[in-house]
Design a protein that fits this description.
Blueprint (H helix, E strand, L loop, with lengths): L1 H8 L2 H5 L4 H28 L4 H18 L11 H14 L4 H24 L11 H24 L9 H10 L6 H20 L5 H15 L27 H19 L1
Helix pairs in contact: 3-4, 5-6, 5-7, 5-11, 6-11, 7-8, 9-10
Amino acid sequence: MLQTIISTLFPFFTWMQRQTQVTVKKDLMAGVTGAVLVLPQGVAYAYIADLPPEVGLYTAIVSASVAALFGSSFHMISDSTAALSIVVASVVHQVSSSSVIDQMLIVTTLSFLVGIIQFSFGVLRLGSLVNFISHTVIIGFTTGAALLIATSQVKHFLGIELESRLSFFQEIQSLARSLEDVNYYALSIGAATLVTSLIIKKINRKLPHLLIGMLVGSVLCLLLNGQLHGVMMVESMPGSLPPLSLPDVSPSIMEALFSGAFAVALLGTH
């Protein structure tokens, strides 16, 4: 009985006993590969959520560690997604001010609420309710999220500075009015990165095409002295984990975030 409870609460005790020298080597290779790929991906998701880039790395570290130790599946991938990032951005923009400190407090509270909701789903065995969400609805949502993300990132691709927190149509109108301000250095670097990624993916799907594309774009930016020509660079990130912080559990904040947290919880469960 005690062993069953321990294996349920701490599943890593079970899979640790199955480890061999062969599996450890394979897991190490998979871990290194995943870490290399998650580095640029986590930073990109943080930018989509309109948060500091290091937040994407912190999220990748925590979610992967918790899923590896306490997850119930050996095959399920636990990580941030572009769709969730855009939802988080919309929730944060509706509640917080432009202050980064306020945004981080809101994100912490949102994460806390999402965890409580998903934990409640598990205890009450309500996770199966997500299966009633039509696959067509999910496709429609992800397609809409993809359009929003693509539109919000075109300004970086073209090297154009626009106001933040614009709606979809406002973003398109602003881009159309600012086409004469295109930074052709940024455009060339972005195009080289995109084309390289697509070509590598076409040649061999097993190769990390996005990572190779990023390396090609980085080298081209270095050769063109992109920083001297107005190409935006990722700022240096702190080399340590952030201090622990508590969520804001005031009734007004919890009420304002609940609907957004419920949406994030459902999307994360699906």
